[in-house]
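Hi R.,

Here's the input for the magnesium ion complex you asked about:
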Amino acid sequence: MLNFDARALALLNRLNENGYEAFLVGGCVRDALRNVEIHDYDVTTSALPQETLACFPDCPVIETGIRHGTVTVLWEGLPVEVTTYRVDGGYSDGRHPDGVRFTPSLEEDLARRDFTVNAMAFSPLRGFCDPFGGRVDLEAGILRCVGDPSRRFSEDSLRILRGLRFSSVTGFSLEFQTKSALIALREGLQKVSAERIREEFVKLICGTHAEAILREFPQVIGVFLPEILPTVGFDQRNYHHCHTLYEHTLAVLSAVPPLPHLRLAALLHDVAKPETFSLDEGGTGHFYGHAQRSAERADEILRRLRFDNETRRAVVTLIRHHDGPLEESEGSVRRKLNKLGDLFFDYLALCRADTLGLAPEFHGRISHFDRLEVLARKILAENPCLREKDLAVNGHDLMLLGYRGPQIGAALRRLLDAVLDGAVENEKELLLQYLNREDET
Ligand code: ATP
Ligand code: MG
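And here is the predicted structure with magnesium ion in place:
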C-alpha cells in the first residue's frame, strides 16, 4: 500500500463526508509510487474554495491563492494545499494563465498538468485516476508531456525547465517529442519571471542527475544563464586540466554536496575563465584574476535571478576564495577562518571538488585540504579569537588608554591581525602591552 501520511487521508475523508470529491494529486502521488519521501501534499477537489473553507472550521487555513482556487489547510500540523478542480484559461503571454475556470471534472483538472507522472490522482475511496498513462510512464522512467508538447511548452515556458528539473531529480528520460519540443521552444524561457526560473533551477542543480542534464542541455540553460555558453567546449590549454572548462565545471558540481549555495558556487566558480584567458609564450593557458572576476559575474547572475542575499553572499565569497593553495600553518588557517567564518568548511568542500576536476595526476592534492581541515578543527576546538569582537580588549579599553576616533578601529584591527598570526595571546594585559610596544617603535 502507498505510504501516505494518515493526516492527508483524514483530510480527504473530511471533504468526502461533506459530499465533495477529493484526491491526492501531483508530486505526492508520483513520489509515493516511486517510494521516495513525500515532501508536500496537494489535494484536488470538486469543492469550491469557499466550500473548502467551510469544511475546515476547526483548522488554521491560509488563503494561499484563493483566486486560483488554492487554500492551505493545516491539518494536525500537516500543511496540505487544497485546490478546486480547474482548467487554465489561455496563456497569451506564455507566463500566466489569463484566468482559471473551475470545473466539476477531475479529468479536466488532470489534463492541465504538465507531465503524465504529475497528472495522477489517488484516493483510498476511488483508487487511481490516471487518464494519461502516468503509471506506465513512471514505471518505465519516462517524462512525457500531457497532450501535445509544443502546445504545452508554448502555453507556459516554465514547463521546459520543469522537464529538465524532474529529469535531474528522478533520472527519468525525456520522451522523444517532449525533448525535441523543449529544445525547439527554449527561447520561451526568456519570458518567464526570474523567481520561477530560480526555483526550478535550484532543484535542477541539486538533483542526483544534474551533471547529465547540464551536459545535455547547455543551450536550454544558456537562455537564462548565457554566461555558461563560452565555457562549453572551451580548451583550457593548461596541463592541470584534461577536460574542457564546462566538463571541469560539471565534475566539480557533481563532487560537492547537493546544497544550493555549494552547487551554485561550483557551477559558477570558473565562469569568467574565458574572459580572463591568456596564452604564454610556451602555449600554456592562464586565467589571471579569474576567481575575483568569476565572483563578480556570479554576483550579477544571482542578482538577476533574484536569489536571496544570504545565498548570493555565500556563493560569491566561496568563489572569490576558491583559487590557490593555502599555507598549511595555523596563522593562515586562522586568517581564512576570519575571512570565511561559517563558510570555511564549504570552502574546503569546493576546493576538494575543484581538485577532483583536475587531471588525475593532481588528485593527490586533495590531502592538502584534509590537512587544512585538521588544522581548522584544532583551532576551533581551542575557543579561538577569530573576530574583533572575540578580542579580550574592546574600544572602551582603548579609549581609557587615550585612543580616539578612527585610531580605535585601526588598533583593534592590528591586534586582531597579531592574534591571528599568533604573535600575541588573546589576553587583556598582553594585548595592551603589545600595543604599547608597537606604539614605541
Ligand atoms: P515537487 O513538489 O516534488 O517539486 P510537484 O510535482 O509537487 O513536485 P509542484 O511545483 O509542487 O510540483 O506542482 C504541483 C503539481 O501541479 C504538479 O505535480 C503538476 O501536476 C502541477 N503543476 C505545477 N506547475 C505546473 C505548470 N507550470 N504547468 C502545469 N502543471 C503544473
Ligand atoms: Mg509539490
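One thing worth noting: The chain has 22 helices and 13 strands.

Cheers,
M.
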